[in-house]
Amino acid sequence: MLTAGHPAPPSTAPVRVFLLDDHEVVRRGVRDLLEAEPGIVVVGEAANAREALARVPAARPDVAVLDVRLGGATGGDHEGVEVCRELRAELPDLACLMLTSFDDDEALFDAIMAGAAGYVLKQIGGSDLVAAVRTVATGRSLLDPRMTDRVMARIRGSVPDPGPKAVAPGELDRLSPRELEILDLIGLGLTNRQIADRLFLAEKTVKNRVSSILGKLGVGRRVQAALIAERLREPQGTRP
User: Is residue 206 classed exposed, middle or buried when 0-12, 13-18 and 19+ CB atoms within 10 A define those classes?
Assistant: First the structure.
């Protein structure tokens, strides 16, 4: 019998789901929950970013449920978001549902910039998580409009943003013309792979250039560079 309120059309193929979480207990719990539902099948799982990036393309899921934070202090604050960014570059039709224990505006911002279709807390009820998977599988978004508006307001610079520091003109002078070009594309939300394709560069070259840009701007996160790029497009912003 179908779960009330979340019917799956009998004529459609099952929703294929891939799980990424560094806690085995969490993965097992989510797998058991989803596989108990009609019309949903878990086609693979991974415990870290490297495994996910290697396994997802072969598994061809419709939805990837990705833990935002992986590996504690060694895995980076929002490594799951970077996985989302890379997977979306390779598989544009993949819906990424971000799963996190923290109500974190910065992580939400990162997720939107990476192209995530949804963002839910791990405290979510089981039936709501199932509904979330079904929702993003249909191509719909599961991002609270109020939260999305707040994040987009940050991008436009209409609210104070304590994250990225103000960049002095001298720091922008340190960027080469190619680095300024890459910074602009980062601000548009492009992944390293997409930037490489756009500029006819090797992906590794773009990755190295992005690291150089972050260092020269004195910021530690790609999303901070994206905010800087957005502000440079505003009338009050200036290009060297």
Answer: buried
Non-local (6+) Cβ contacts of 88 within 8 A are 94, 96, 114, 115, 191
Helix (H, G, I), strand (E, B) or coil at 40: strand
Question: Cα separation of 240 and 234, whole Å?
Answer: 14
Instruction: Tell me if 18 sits within 8 A of 65, measured CB to CB.
Output: yes
What parts of the chain have a pLDDT lower than 50?
1-11, 73-76, 158-165, 236-240
Task: Report the alpha-carbon distance of residue 200 to residue 12 in Å, rounded.
Answer: 40
- Predicted pLDDT of residue 239: 41
- For strands 95-100 and 40-46, give the pairing: unpaired
Which residue, among 156, 70, 57, has the nearest Cα to 107 in the 3D structure? 70
Outline where DSSP puts E strands in 26-152.
Answer: 40-46, 63-67, 95-100, 118-121
Residue-level pLDDT at 39:
93
Q: Which two tokens stand for residue 117?
A: 């279709």
Q: Which residue has the tokens 């290697």?
A: 54
Distances (CA, A) of 217 to 1, 93, 195: 56, 33, 19
Beta bridge mates, 118? 97, 142
Instruction: Label the pairing between strands 95-100 and 63-67.
Output: parallel
pLDDT for 25: 92
Amino acid at 118: G
Identify residue 126 by its one-letter amino acid code.
G
